Structure prediction request, 182 residues.
Amino acid sequence: MNDIVADRLDSHEIPVWLLRELRSDQAGETGAVAIYEGILWVSRDTKIRRFAEDHLRTEQSHLTKINSVLPAKSRSRLLPLWRAAGFVTGALPSLFGARAIYATIAAVETFVDEHYLQQIERLDREQLLPTVRELLADCREDEIHHKQEAEQAMGAGPQLVLRTWCRIVDFGSRIAVAIERR
Prediction:
């Protein structure tokens, strides 16, 4: 399914809980696109720019796929907020260098990995919408790869200031999901 966009589903085919989850996924992928745009806006480091450009393409693909299955009437109305938050989440650590960027990406992707896994497990339990499950599993696989790539590039774990920043990023991600699930 990596290259196949799932067919648009009717909102009547999708349980309310999943519509809310997909809306949170749309918000998250929108924020992810903006994170990499923020990194590219600030960083001049060739290696970082290549990392951000590669990941940006993947996140744009994820957003397209999520939008393909999320009915228009169920989409987030807060996308400008998530774009701004994502941009700042990418631009700010870029002012402090590569380790800060990689730590930020590792923190975000750790959260996203868990977030997608919860959705996949529930779809499995309820035996629902295998196409959506496959889409989420493909996205999750990419996010795990992004996390591993960032952790490897970062080297040693983040020090106190970066750990604090990463906790803030994780908390912000959790708040955004909670808002979009309503």
